[in-house]
Design a protein that fits this description.
- The structure is a single chain.
- By secondary structure, this protein is mostly helical.
- The chain has one domain.
- The two termini are 31 Å apart.
Length: 237
């Protein structure tokens, strides 16, 4: 799902919760597991990574700093507070997934397509905020990054997808490293999920163009909506 359309957290994160893993630990374990899939799938797009350093380096730097900040924020959030935040985070991720293309279209006309210094500075600030959210929860950050790249004037969807995967891998990577260092990972579940994420991420990235993406997007949106309703009921019953 992540390699083709995104939204893998709508499956992986609830699956961990349903097996009895605590919410914050489940989120940390999910981040580590899906990061492996993202990192593996990035290899399929390596020929598309041809961008000016003045654009890529600031975005990667903000991804690192923001991802670390979001991970530390998650670790220091009380478990009960995070449980109440889950449905709102799921709702935000679902809306981003459903309306992400419209967001990209709106932003693509608001910034000069020449990607000047002011545009890059603004994009870097936005990327920092995306990375904080990504380090904290992560649902929908790929869509946010696509919107950001559209705002910089990029139009090649394959090249945009390649850079998006790199930025997401950086955000989730620094967050995952933080979770490992702080002992926030449930390893038996994580190891099983890592194997699945690696196989799925590598194979799906190569065949993404052959799959019915509209159908997959519809399934993801329906799944995200269902999980959002469920967690609202669970958090506020």
């Amino acid at each position: 799902m992540n390699a083709v359309a995104g939204g893998g957290s709508f499956v992986a994160f609830p699956a961990l919760l349903f097996t009895g893993v605590a919410p914050i630990t489940a989120n940390a374990t999910n981040t580590l597991s899906l990061w492996v899939g993202t990192a593996v799938s990035s290899g399929a797009y390596r020929n598309r990574l041809n961008f000016p350093r003045r654009i890529v380096l600031p975005l990667i730097a903000m991804s690192l700093v923001g991802g670390l900040a979001g991970a530390l924020l998650l670790i220091n959030t009380p478990a009960r507070t995070f449980l109440r935040l889950i449905p709102w985070l799921m709702l935000a991720a679902t809306l981003l997934f459903a309306f992400g293309k419209r967001l990209s279209g709106c932003l693509s006309t608001s910034v000069s397509h020449e990607a000047g210094n002011a545009a890059i500075a603004g994009a870097s600030l936005f990327e920092f905020l995306v990375a904080v959210y990504g380090g904290y929860f992560g649902g929908g950050i790929g869509i946010m990054n696509l919107a950001l790249l559209a705002a910089l004037g990029m139009t090649d969807i394959h090249a945009m997808n390649a850079l998006k995967i790199v930025l997401v891998a950086v955000i989730n990577g620094v967050a995952a490293a933080t979770f490992v260092a702080t002992g926030s990972i449930v390893w038996p579940q994580a190891l099983v999920m890592i194997v699945g994420a690696a196989i799925g991420g590598y194979s799906a990235a190569h065949f993404a163009q052959k799959l019915p993406q509209r159908l997959i997007r519809a399934v993801v949106i329906a799944l995200g909506s269902g999980m959002t309703i469920y967690f609202f009921g669970r958090a506020y019953r």
